[in-house]
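Q: For a teaching session next week I want to show students how multiple molecules come together into a single three-dimensional assembly. I've collected the sequence lines for a complex. Could you give me the predicted structure tokens for the whole thing so I can convert them for display?
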Amino acid sequence: MTAGRVAEAKPGARGVAATAGLAFLSMAAPKVDRALVLRVAKLACLSLSDIEADHLAGDLARIVGYVEQLDLLDTRDVAPTAHVQLERAPWREDEPTPGLSHDDALAQAPRTERDGFAVPAFVE
Amino acid sequence: MHQGVTEVAASVQRGETTAEASTEAALARIAQFNPRLNALLYVARDRALDQARAVDAKRARGEQPGRLAGVPIAIKDAICTRGMPSTAGSKILAGYVPPYDATVIERLRAADAIIIGKANMDEFAMGSSNENSAFGAAKNPWDLTRTPGGSSGGSAASVAARLTPCALGSDTGGSIRQPAALTGTVGIKPTYGRVPRYGLIAFASSLDQIGPMATDVRGAARVLSVIAGRDPRDSTSLDAPVDDFEAACGRSIKGLRIGVPDEYFAEGLDGEVGASVRAAIGELEKEGCVVVPVRLPHTRFAVATYYVLANAEASSNLARFDGVRYGLRVDEPGGDLRTMYGATRDAGFGPEVKRRILLGTFVLSAGYFDAYYLKAQKLRTLVRRDFEDAFRDVDIVCSPTSPTPAFRLGERVDDPLAMYLSDVYTLPASLAGIPAISVPCAPTAAGLPVGLQLMAPALHETTMLRVAAAWEARAPARGALPEMLAG
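A: Of course. Below is the structure for the complete assembly, covering every listed component.
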């Protein structure tokens, strides 16, 4: 099986662009390089070494390239599905129920201090 | 020897054996085979025996033991078990012991099942071969050089090697069905919302679903009937009545319309797998089913759609692993909060998890959201419509579960995309939220298991189970055991 762009769509199927190579992507495909990976990694709170970032850039470029086959479809008139939930769940009664005890909640914390979670300084 | 779920429960209920004896037998099999399989990451020996003795005491008092009386069950390590480690296969949760039970665990305990231990899995359920586990891959009992599939590979290996007659897995894009297919076991992904997710460590919340794996269809149906049903702690759990899943097994399938989609028998399908599945469909036709060709034209876009949506959700769900409340923490001298977050997550997550967090963060980031995430959500609509159209003409859609039999460990680790493509037949049902089951059909010439996948409309598990049980009754793979169990 090959990675990368699908050259043509199967004609006839509903919603599938019949014209080979017709793209509906709203912008040019991004260049996935080390700089982009490091920018995204910062958003995701991941510290990556340069070697890791280079390796991941290669993987991501291939995966993003594969994902771009979705451009072949004209979906202008299709509503997005965020969730397949079949019905609206009934509301829960607004009654207090016991939650985790303070001790249970803190029991797995790597660092605690003065009966709370301890974190490094975050205010200058 | 090697009794299924319903046989074990019946023997314990009738007093022909005790829950303690059944638990001891499972522990003995685990001691004998698990070192070679790495199926279970944790064995709850003492707790399991205590629980078993409590079931026996209940019976001795004249009370009726539950529907899973004395049935040992392995639990995928993504499901929280009070007082037992729950790592989700990740170094970032090594040693984590949840302070509460998932809803499904409460229900299993209430039905007198014996929680025997925690099953190996790909880290955070991200993988199709178990090789992304931080604790080493589980092995396929049919061939120890091959994968048991993933991500619920440890659960599948445990059932295939008869360490336990059943297990719980979780399925986001095929993680119950594909390992079931690769190990010759039965695996059910229920309708989205059938089984509460409270206590399941989240991967992609709009897709994740807990389900049973078992040695036979009726056993899987029994476990499903215990864990299904509304839970106020999961706002996506459905209020639909829990059908009698077990009674559906054994009902006639005459006149049922079976849809066969061309798109699932296309390029990339192993010849032997295709032949085995077509032979099974032929047998169903002999049983009185009507075989109807159907079209699911957006199948080819399911892999791309899934990897955008699932990883977007994952990037958000996995933000909670930050070294503050539980799990690993890496502090650097003089480092601030962000430095601690970054160092902890870099040290705690494996390469595949990082890859997926990055992809997910990327498709949600400013400037790319519409092009990737919104586009994929629209594709999800088209995949759902494919099934809605097909189910106007048929009761069940039938396909292979996996395009190939179990592949060799190491074969696809360096090619994430090839690994993703191995889920091509299981992803569409996940995106559509419909139930699906994998049930064994004729093995390959080399003796590797093959899975037949049956997909049904939402909440129609009973139709799916009817067909699965009817097929199983005449399946050539019935009762076959891996060679390692003989030696």
